[in-house]
Amino acid sequence: MTTWPFGTDADEHDPQATPECGQHGPMEQRQPETPEQRWCGTWYQCTSFRCGSAALLPSLELRAQLAAQRAASSKAAA
Ligand SMILES: [Zn+2]
């Protein structure tokens, strides 16, 4: 089991689960428009045309970078 140095809801989230819009139900996966979006993880968008809800399942790379930033900022604060 992989242990992350930080605890977030995402860590406990099933990576295979599909995010849901609170009003419209399961979202559909959206193709990333930029390499940056692709790098950040998997994007989901509400299936309702008028609803702007979207969700991101962060990639391991993004989570690792966030952890590094958090470690650096806590070091700077100390
Ligand atoms: Zn929606």
Question: What is the topology?
Answer:
Layout: H1 9-12, E1 20-21, E2 25-26, E3 28-30, H2 35-40, E4 41-45, E5 54-58, H3 60-77
Antiparallel strand pairs: 1-2, 3-4, 4-5
This protein binds zinc ion.
Structural features, described:
The chain is an alpha+beta fold. It has one domain (22-77). 36% of the residues lie in helices and 22% in strands. The chain contains 3 helices and 5 strands, in the order αβββαββα. The chain has helices at 9-12, 35-40, 60-77, and strands spanning 20-21, 25-26, 28-30, 41-45, 54-58. The N and C termini lie far apart (30 Å). Residues 1-11 have low confidence and may be disordered. The protein binds zinc ion. Zinc ion binds next to loops.
Order of helices and strands: HEEEHEEH
Oligomeric state of this protein:
single chain
Structural class: alpha+beta
What is the count of DSSP helices, taking H or I runs of 4+ residues?
A: 3
Report the C-alpha radius of gyration, rounded. 15 Å
Bound molecules: zinc ion
Mean pLDDT: 84
Main beta sheet: 3 strands, antiparallel
Give the CA-based shape.
Answer: elongated
Counted up, domains total 1
Low-pLDDT segments: 1-11
Quick recap of the structure?
This protein is of the alpha+beta class and 78 residues long.
List keywords for this structure.
two-stranded antiparallel sheet, 5 strands, 3-stranded antiparallel sheet, 22% strand, single chain, alpha+beta, 78 residues, 3 helices, binds zinc ion
